[in-house]
Every structure is written in structure tokens, then in C-alpha cells.
Amino acid sequence: MCPDKEGALFFQVIRHRAVRKIKSKYRIYNGEWDGESGQIVLPAQASSRHSLLLVVRLGVEWELRTLQCIVSECDRAGGEYGVDDVVARYESSVASGAGVFGFIRELIAGKKIMGKIRSSETYQATLNSFMRFRHGIDLSFGMMDAGLMEMYETELRSRGLARNTTSFYMRILRTIYKQAVERGLTEDRHPFKHVYCGMDKTLKRCLSLAEVKRLKGLDLSSMPTLDFARDMFIFSFCTRGMSFVDMAYLKKCDLKNGYLTYQRRKTGQRLTIEWTRQMQDILDKRGPTTTQYLLPIILREDGSERRQYQNQMMKINRRLKDVARLARLKAPLSLYYSRHSWATIARGKDVPLSVISEGLGHDSEITTQIYLDSIRSSEVDKANRRILKDL
Fold this sequence. Notes:
3 domains; 9% strand; hpI Integrase, Chain A; 14 helices; mainly alpha
């Protein structure tokens, strides 16, 4: 290898005195390889080559582990095999993109075929995050151990992600890993035993009925985008905290004989809501849509419906922050506030738990009780502040 020119790395496979060389796709300078340790030498982090060589080291590790796995599989299978068999299987593995990343992409494609778009999106988000951690270098499931997952969790936390967010990625990866175990792609090495895969209880925030009224009565006629955001929030509140995705996909045919009937996309549960004057006022204000949808959220039926609803949701949540300031609300308002607000106000009016549970579309009253208890904690904190104020 010429000292001032990058050269290729090779793996040497020897069996029964037969020798074959496999060329790595990575190239480095002569001084960047330590022959004694068999590793790439990493320079100081300030060096312009540090990041690149870190990626190369991970890539070479992946190639070597792939070769080792192939040899181990040949040994377990028994029978005679030669170096040419190892080389052929390695080249086939590389060409097929076999590895954790390839397996996840396969699962994503399968979910899209089954129409599980939301699941495919969460898998894609997890893949993007994990690939970023790995600098785009794939790995085998055999390389996924407890130490690697701890490193991944540490990297996520260093980016400022909360525990619930890091846990989201870990839970998705854990599900993917279990599927790989079930398919016989790896033995279970319990790589997630030292990382957090739970859910921290988050504080649920809500508006009082007086604040909802103030929001509803706000004159936003000169600010049409804020006016639309406020109307969608009020519509969600009037429909017992209907989620925005369900609002977006409401069809005109769902409104019949004074009742709105729809199926929750999250749970598949079918709900029926009495159509009221407040809902009709919003519909009249917005005018008829040119699509099959009841509300002017999805404006084109051209295959981009899901992207349209997601873009609208982001815009509305951003604009609701401005609406909250104009209404002198302290809460950083978002669409999800409508659901918590409806549940809390209903409880404050002594509506039975069973009725609130039905209204929210929960599977059981236990879920509703947990939901309301998480809201009540903010009220207890508020009472405590009043008590300690005069201490």
C-alpha cells in the first residue's frame, strides 16, 4: 500500500490450505492500519479524518462479523465446505443487503402492503435514528448486544431526547428484534435488558370551560389561518376530543339524521356523536368542500391525503400557540388539549366515569381513570402552590 495513496483492505479466508481474498469496499491510508491489533487507527477527534475512519471501522467490523457468522453457520450445518463456498455466501449476503437495516426495510415494506401506514412510519423513524447512530453502517443481529443498545441510548440522550422518546425507539427496536428471533435469524441475547423501555407518566394539561369559551369567542376574522386553527380545536372539543386524523378523514356520508358516525383509526372502535349547533356553525362558516370529506383539511384526492393531513396538523398546532397568546391563555395550546379538556370538564360536572369512558372511546373505565388521574395531578400541584404561598 502506497503511504500517500489510499489502498483497499482485504479479508483472507483459509480452509484446508486453500486461500481466498475478499476485498472490502473500504479504503484507507497505510498509516491508518495497525497490523498487530488488526484494527483501524483512529486519529484525534479534531482530525478531519476522525469521523470518516470511525464509519470505516464500523463498516469493516460489519464485514468481518458477516464472514464469521457465515463460517459459524457452515460449521453448525456439518458436512464439507470450502473457501469458495464461504466467499460465495458472503458475496450473496452483501448483494442482498442482509442485516438489521435490510430486515427493518423488509418489515416496513410489508406493513405498507398491509395498509399499516402509521406503523410503517414509526418503523421508518426508528430506522432513520438507528442508522444515524451507526453512521449508516449496517450490522448483523449478532452484533446487537446490551452494550451496543446502552451506547445507542446514551447517544439519544446526548441529543436532548426525553426518556419517553428514547424508550419509543427502544420499544420499536425490541419488537423488531423479537421478530428476528422468531424467524431464526438470531438467538436471543437480551440486548435491551439495560436500557429503558417503559413509559414515564406525563402531565396532562387542559383548559377550563371558561377558557374554552374565551377561545371560542375570540375575533380572528382578520387572521384566517389562526381562525381556521381555532375552529378545528373547537370542533375537536365539541366532538368529545376527536383526534385530528379522525377529523381529517370524516366523510360527508358519515353525517346522517343528526348523528355523526365514524371509526377511530387508532382502535377501530365505532363511535356515534349527536350533531349539535356548535358543530354545524363551524361547518356553515367553512362552507361546502369539493371533496368527499366533511372538513376542509384534505383538499385534494390525489394519493397525498395522508401527507396533507399531517401537514395541516403541524400548521394548526403551530398556529394554536399564537391563538393561545391572543386569548391570554398560559397553556402552550395544541389539538390534544381538546381531548383532555373535554374529559376534565365532564368530570367536573359529575358525569359518570362510564359515560366519560364511552365518550373518549376507551376500551375500559380503568384506562379512563388512569387518564383522569394524570390530569388531576396538575390540580393537586396547583392547590399545593396556593398552600405554600403563605408559608
